[in-house]
Specification:
By secondary structure, this protein is mostly beta strands. It has a domain at 18-58 and 93-133: YaeB-like (Elongation Factor Tu (Ef-tu), domain 3), CATH 2.40.30.70. It is built from three helices and eight strands. It has a six-stranded antiparallel β-barrel with strand order 1-2-7-6-3-8. It has a two-stranded antiparallel sheet with strand order 4-5. The model has no long low-confidence stretch (mean pLDDT 85).
């Protein structure tokens, strides 16, 4: 328990630009009306990176009560620092996911994606077109205990969201 985790730190505000929606296999992002002009030419990208707030773990009480060292569900028996995980439970639960853009409806502010590991109603903080020259690391290394034998996420995704719901 970290009663004073944020004590003495400066706070600042972020605002949602939209929300994640999941409806019977359809996954889409709803961009709020005032931000829809920012969608211009996004549909010319095959992929984008979405930054969102893990709202189910975003309250200050939950954030101050987190353990900074955890045993990730994908690495039983391995204790790690929270910053060495992709857990949604973190001091500032800002998550990022690269997504394949299936379709963009500029008028309605809807972006259909193939997969995102956010929950229904998760607030979207930002969207960035995926630039392979900037966003890709050619020779990234990961710890041996995390090597699943994959060098990239398959187009159909990993279905981590389904595992989180179990």
């Amino acid at each position: 328990m970290n009663d004073k985790l944020f004590s003495g730190l400066e706070a600042f505000q972020v605002y949602p630009i939209g929300y994640i929606h999941r409806d019977e296999g359809d996954i889409h992002l709803e961009v709020l009306p005032q931000f829809r002009p920012a969608l211009k030419v996004l549909d010319q990208f095959s992929h984008m990176t979405v930054l969102f707030w893990a709202h189910e773990h975003g309250g200050i009480e939950a954030r101050e009560a987190i353990d900074l060292q955890v045993e990730p569900p994908y690495a039983p028996g391995k204790m790690t620092g929270i910053f060495a995980t992709r857990s949604q439970i973190r001091p500032n639960p800002i998550l990022s996911t690269p997504c394949k853009i299936e379709a963009v409806d500029h008028e309605k502010g809807i972006i259909h994606v193939n997969m995102i590991d956010g929950f229904e109603g998760s607030p979207i903080l930002d969207i960035k077109g995926y630039f392979p020259i900037m966003d890709r690391v050619n020779e990234a290394e990961i710890p041996e205990w995390l090597d699943w034998g994959l060098d990239h996420v398959p187009e159909e995704g990993l279905n981590l969201f389904e595992e989180m719901e179990e």
